[in-house]
Amino acid sequence: MTGHGPDTRPAGAERSDVPELVTLHVWRIPRRAVPRALVRMAVDPRRLRALPGVRFGKLLGTGTGTGFGPTDADPTRWAAVTVWDDPAAADGFDESPVARSWRRIAAAGVRVDLRPVTSRGEWSGVRPFGAPPGGATSGPVLALTRARLRPSRALTFWRAVPPVARALHAAPGLVARFGIGEAPVGWQGTVSVWRSATDLVEFAYRHPEHRAAITRTPVERWYAEELFARFEVRDVVGDRSVLGWTGPDAGGAGPAEDDRGRQ
After folding, report:
1. Which of 50, 198, 222, 244 has a Cα-to-Cα distance from 174 of 20 to 30 A?
2. What is the pLDDT of residues 31-84, one digit of tens each?
3. For position 21, what pLDDT does the model report?
4. Model's pTM, two decimal places?
5. Per-residue pLDDT tens over the stretch 140-184
6. Contact, 230 vs 119, CB < 8 A?
């Protein structure tokens, strides 16, 4: 699902210090606005990275999370992952040209504020979330995976996805999940939100389908580059249903609702 363009990372993106704030913005657009979203995807990545206080930023397409490739793409939902040097700088995102352009075409949107807990691997050759020390968390957690597939191994990878996707869909404690990517084929990832870190760990390391996939990964050499990161969810502002959030609070705001990031 993801793409890998030229390395245009901003200065400082290779620093090992852990950012205080990472934001995930997700927008739902009507189908008639899809052509305008494609224009935004061509124009806005560079503008996102150039915003004051941005250490690392990616604009992403999304998918259902049931598979990877063009048939899984959801052209009515788009996302941005942004790593901030200074949390105060994130407060100005809503009035930036990037945010305004997406808000003009969006029917709904949501912002998730995140604190990195663990991260391993690289994304476009850098470690955008530093080297978090881990530690206990309370409340919901978000897991983000991103990988660049080896073309010669893509077919075996795609064949391995359905059992894991089905298991994930039924996993206890899962409240939201979807695919992410910078291009339709070969570079993809997932976002999943869990009610607790315990639920995430239970699925990741104890569910047989997922454990089998983990075991196969170094043997099959599916990935040319991979990253896995876990975050504490600090706030959710906006329409949670854009994330596919399940439960009675799907349309509500986060645990500490305020006006930051409101779409």
Report:
1. 222
2. 999 999 999 999 999 999 999 999 999 999 998 766 555 567 899 999 999 999
3. 97
4. 0.81
5. 999 998 887 665 555 565 565 655 666 566 678 889 989 898 875
6. yes
Tokens, residue 96: 């930036």
Q: And the tokens for 16?
A: 């090992």
Query: 66 and 72 in contact (C-beta within 8 Å)?
Result: yes
In Å, how far from its chain's centre is CA 168? 16
Cα distance between residue 258 and residue 238, in whole Å: 10
Cβ neighbours of 99 (radius 10 Å): 23
Q: What is the mean pLDDT of residues 107-112?
A: 98
